């Protein structure tokens, strides 16, 4: 009789523990995912700014070359 008396509280406490553990792990994974997404967005912004700068440099060099070609001819 004593064992039956403790089964329900034990199962309830076990269930609560599993739920709390799941919530904690979920939050940790969510924070890590957000950090990875933020890092990737920053890298994309850096890559885009490098591409824009590279495009501008190429355009400037191309304009200078076009200006120099008629003078040489």
Q: Keyphrases for this structure?
A:
single chain, mainly alpha, rod-shaped, 73 residues
Task: Report low-confidence residues grouped into runs of 5 or more.
Answer: none
State the share of residues found in helices, binned by percent: over 70%
Note the total helix count.
1
Tally of strands: 0
Question: What's the multimeric state?
Answer: single chain
Mean pLDDT: 90
Question: Largest sheet, if any?
Answer: none
Describe the structure.
There is one protein chain. This protein is mostly helical and 73 residues long. 97% of the residues lie in helices and 0% in strands. The protein is built from 1 helix and no strands. The longest helix is centred in the middle third of the chain and has 71 residues, at 2-72. The model has no long low-confidence stretch (mean pLDDT 90).
Topology readout:
Blueprint: H1 2-72
In short:
The chain is mostly helical and 73 residues long.
